[in-house]
Amino acid sequence: MGQILEIIFTADFLHSIIRLSTPILFATMAALISERAGVINIGIEGTMLFASLMGVVGSAFTGNVWLGVLCAVVSGIAFSGLLSFFHLKLETDIVLTGIALNLMSSGLTIFILYILTGDKGVSTQLASKAVPNINIPLIQDIPVLGSILSGHSVLTYLAFFLVIALAIFLKKTKLGTYIRAVGENSDSVETAGISVNMVRLKALLISGAISGLGGAFMSMAYVNMFTKDMVAGRGFIALAAEAMGRGVPGLSMLSALFFGMADALSNNLQLFNMPSELTRLMPYAFTIVALGIYAAREQRKSKA
Amino acid sequence: MKKKNLLFSSATTVLAITISLVIALVIILCVSEQPGQAVTALLLGPLRSTRLIGSIFTTAIPICFTGLAVCLMFQASMFNMCAEGSFFLGALAAAAFATKVPLPGILGLAGPMLVGAAAGALLCLVPAWLKAKLNASEMVASLMLNYIALYLGLYVLNTYLRDQSFGALASEKLPDSSKLDKIIPGTSIHSGIFLAIFFIVLCFLLLYKTSLGHKIRTYGQNPRFTKYAGIKVGSVIILSQVLGGAIAGIGGSVEVMGMYERFQWTSLPGYGWDGVILAILARNKPQYVPLAAIFLSYLRVGASTMASNTDVPKELITVIQAIMIMLITATALLKGMKQKMVIKEALSSGTDS
Amino acid sequence: MTDHEQVTPILEMRQISKVYGNGVYANQQVSLSVNRGEIHALVGENGAGKSTLMKILFGMEKPDQGEIVLEGKTVTFRSPQDAIARGIGMVHQHFKLVDSLSVTENVTMGYEPVKRGFIDRKTAKEKVSKIAELFELQDELDTATGKLPVGIKQKVEIIKALYRGAQILILDEPTAVLTPQETEELFDQLMKLKSRGYTVIFISHKLREVKQISNRISIMRQGKMIDTVDTDGITEQEISSRMVGTNYSKNLAKKAAEPKEVLLQVKNLTAVGMNKKEVVNNVSFSVRAGEITGIAGVEGNGQNELIQMITGLRKIDRGSVCIMGRDTGKLSIQELRELGMSYIPSDRMEDGLAVSMSIGENLISTKLKDRRLYRHHLLSKKKIRDMANQLVRDYRIKCDSQETPVSMLSGGNMQKVVVAREFTQQARLIIAEQPTRGIDVGAAKFIHEELIRLRDENCAVLLVTADLEELYQLSDNILVMYDGRFSAYFPNPDQVSETELGNYMLGVKIQSETEIGRGCHEEEKPAI
Questions:
Q1: Closest to B326 (Cβ–Cβ): which among A100, A106, A299?
Q2: What is the ipTM of this complex?
Q3: Burial of C188 (0-12, 13-18, 19+ CB in 10 A)
């Protein structure tokens, strides 16, 4: 136990929490924006997966990392555009459509990878680029804190910046206000002369773009290649994080950090001869327990 | 009116399938250098030999079970995705029991299956309990549980069941008394098919002919009404999910006992997700599950033949399936046409409404 | 009065038809012409197609046939947005406000002034403030609408329509949620708007109000337009008979009540809602066999929570409920039902039915323990069908067959399905919450007669209704609820006028504890 505590309170560990939280944070913000518009986006998992492949493919073919990221974002938007088309236009059930898209993404990524490289598992044959890490002037010189906060991927800083941007967006802009209103009472918005479907479409496309960034982080920063099913449930964990954050950007960020910590912890416990199967299931177990505790508290509150 | 609804839902299904197959053809044309061969293999490949025809049925057996399981859970409007994990754990538990406690005769079959059912049920109990007692989202919990089932299963397999003399990670060989017989020579069809049929009938009776089934369906349609009517909501939630989990677990046992020498899955086999696809195709009705299962496994076998004979990978089919189920759930697909028909009929039936 | 003025129709709806998905005509060849600057009433009983017609006018529904002519030009509305752009505003019966947003945000939604990409709150408030002054609401502009009382919410809706430049204002059953006093205030404001040149279309089925406020009246029945007449040239009776089609006698045959033993005893009942406020506050009363006790009150004063506690749908925070002399605190809903409680909920679609299931399946939902429905331990299709057909006949449910999904039925027939199920389970205590809301006169009368029949067969009936006419017709005694408490008890409805009742409903007057305590009927008959 003492050893575990020693690890937890190192700068390295805190650094890794921030790093491991990044994809969950992107996914959580993607979940948040669509949830606030009253649409639960189960497809984030698949959207991220697809985007992470397209980021690799894009950067390999253009030779430019930023074009790769752009490619990931565009494919994220395209994927959630598909979701929007089916849900908003053809009136499919959002949950079933999201599930379908996840299944599709899982197969489609392998299909594309195989067509391009002849490999069904990893993209090592593609010479993809990595998003650079940056050191923040001033902060990097602060002892301890500097080594925790500085030296992360550009995308990590972008993720945290997004939290603030989304909070302002939801509060201060027209579209943000409409998104909140649609989520609370869509009838009112429709009769006020605003197309609910347009608001939801925009929210879903933003959600797709953010998922795309998350995907890009997975394959171009977290590791530097695509591997099959590499998102590994982060898109689902994000749904829990968003719910526990009650759809508030700041609180949702905290719960994303919490799950990032679970992830970091499970990585570190492997050092103590704990079987890898058991450490790998920990983040998921954490999520269920957290979900249960959260639900119990909510229930007690509504009864009181 | 009822007939018209049925007409439109079957028309939607047919249209959805047609559109998806057309998309498949377009994709094949785009990526393949031997498109003619690939299309033929996909569509007619499964009919090339007795063995392949047989494998349509053997592929249909496990997804029948998960399809039924998901039907049961979805009928209660619970988006419980645990069928995948239940199937996996069911297979593992059955293999564990069969290899550790070899029983003779019928017990050699019944024992592992019961243990498999229990394992599947236990897993599905978790999200059901969370929903019934704490009102927590069953969907997120069940998605997490699939990963937990996988890693827990692998841990057990690696630590307690592993056959050290075998090259890969696998359990010991199942005893002969715990294997389902092959029933048709030249094919791999095994006696699990009878169990599948048995459970289809059972699920149909349960949902439509018993008080519990009525309660499950009512809860699925309107939870508030169920409570109002004096039905114990918690027990309906839990029973529907546990029964679903048990059926998925039995499916896993049947699969491992009918098709394999040992338990050797190291990732989730995906049958639970197939169950979701099946339930959507069958519109949550057990009586349509066998048809949907055979259709789906025909496509699977076709895709495999295509993959082994041409340059198109079999993952094509997962893309097609996804498009198919999205289109099938697209209520608006034929809505305009339906509305026009309704209006026409109303106008022609004169002034009387 | 319009006869001698220059008459210019500002709006004409011509030959409008609308068929719903279940094949039923909501509107059939309906034409409506509205003059500039008039208050035009649209009357008809529930389900006559008034709301559908107005939804078409507001762009919420697309007509299958017909055209709309606005100031001489044919227009097509694809969405409310189009209708708003052409100067049409609508105040819905159920308000369309986003509760967490402020009055200003709700009023300006979709039409906000923007500065540098962000909403310009200052300008928005100034603009809204100008209109709000007319309604003396300028001080509430920053309040979240969820915190406002019903009457004020309605004003916000009117301001919202005016802000969007409405020239024609549609009000759908605006008085349904108002007390008599609030109704008067609304009418004053409508007259003011009229004098400023606005055109008002006023939907109602309360004929007295229609007579009072409107210039002309259009009458609809069963999806068709029957006639448009000058208000001065027609009596209430004439309107009524044209609305219903026949000379319906609304009068119910009802003899004096003969109350017997107490079947429902409520003592010091309290429900604590969100933010720790007592939504039902220490309420006591009783209902005896053979009487109908009516609870009056403006909606949202705790009636619903009170009923939910009695029917077991809500936890009792303090106090007790006894049914047939048994404390219900530990009993499940099923046990309550077995004791003889039956319940017609106010929201039949949400609580009372599973609308996508068939009539038969809905009817058996509370009778699953009845072995007569089974054959060889399995539910028998034939036996369910026989039972359901019997009830469909007895309760005159209009449908193709008992296999028809409930969603295909009209509101009145849906309610009959609820009633058929609830009245056929050896009920002794009947809780009827808004039992005839939104249903046609024929079905309503049928349900009223059934309630009286059951009363005469020695059932206890607790009626909660916002419809004062219904309250007076059925009740043997009346309790008035205000702010979670009773504000009055009247042992005999004839003793109290509607205006007087309105005073108690608004809490302007409150009876003494002793007077209200008479609602427990303790001295008269001992509880069993």
A1: A100
A2: 0.89
A3: exposed
